[in-house]
Amino acid sequence: MEYGEEPSEKTGKGRRLIKEQYAWVRMLKMSMGIGLFAAILFLLTGCGTGGIFDGSRVSNGSVFQLEYSVLNREESAEMELWAGDQLRVTLSHAKGYVDVTVGMEGKDPIYRGNAQQNAEFALEISAAGSYTISVSGHQAKGSVSFIRIPGGKE
Predict the structure, then answer these.
(1) How do beta strands 119-124 and 63-71 pair?
(2) Residue at 121 is within a domain
(3) How far apart are CA 117 and CA 100, in angstroms?
(4) Are residues 117 and 147 in the same domain?
(5) Radius of gyration from C-alpha coordinates of the chain
(6) How confident is the model at residue 48 (pLDDT cuts 50, 70, 90)?
(7) d(CA 74, CA 135)
(8) For 101, which DSSP code?
(9) For 7-16, 22-31, 105-114, which range has the lowest pLDDT when averaged over its residues?
């Protein structure tokens, strides 16, 4: 049967021609469905990602500093502190806030601050040990600094 020929009901060629002519429509619908499924899957997996950190980090035996344009996750560091030391804390934010925890594993924290924005203070260390400093950002932009002052002296 040629294109433009009238379909013949007796031969069934007309139905086959119509099916062939509209096969591309079915393919297009199927491709759109697969594309839509892939887009939804991509968007949903993006919603469950860990956190975002865009900035710099310094962590050594006496300093833990973060400067960030985006902090939307937890960052932590271990620091050996001795009785009589001070931990100088500086929090400076242009946007968002942070939660801060300082303490030894298995003990109550010596400091816990939620929704911190801008602050500067010193923590007195009464017991020697390995302290964990945790900073959790919530749409935060700014910096945090934890500096060990040995024996409370600058």
Answers:
(1) unpaired
(2) yes
(3) 10
(4) yes
(5) 31
(6) very low
(7) 6
(8) E
(9) 7-16
d(CA 115, CA 136): 9
Residues 84 and 25 in one domain: no
Per the structure, the complete domain to which residue 26 belongs is given by 13-47
DSSP string of 50-74, one letter each residue: ---EEEEEEESSSEEEEEEEEE-SE
How far is the C-alpha of 153 from the C-alpha of 88, rounded, in Å? 11
DSSP, collapsed to helix, strand or coil, labels residue 123 as strand
Structural domain tally of the chain?
2
Residue 146 contacts residue 65 (beta carbons within 8 Å): yes
Decide if 132 contacts 74 (C-beta within 8 A). no
| pTM > 0.90: yes or no | no
Cβ pair 98, 137 in contact under 8 A? yes
60 and 21 housed in the same domain? no
- Structure tokens given for 84: 């009589």
Tokens at residue 92, please? Answer: 């400076």
Terminus-to-terminus CA distance in the chain, angstroms?
A: 96
CATH number at residue 110: 2.60.120.1050
Which distant-in-sequence residues (6+ apart) come within 8 Å of 34 by Cβ?
none
Clarify whether residues 101 and 147 are in a common domain: yes
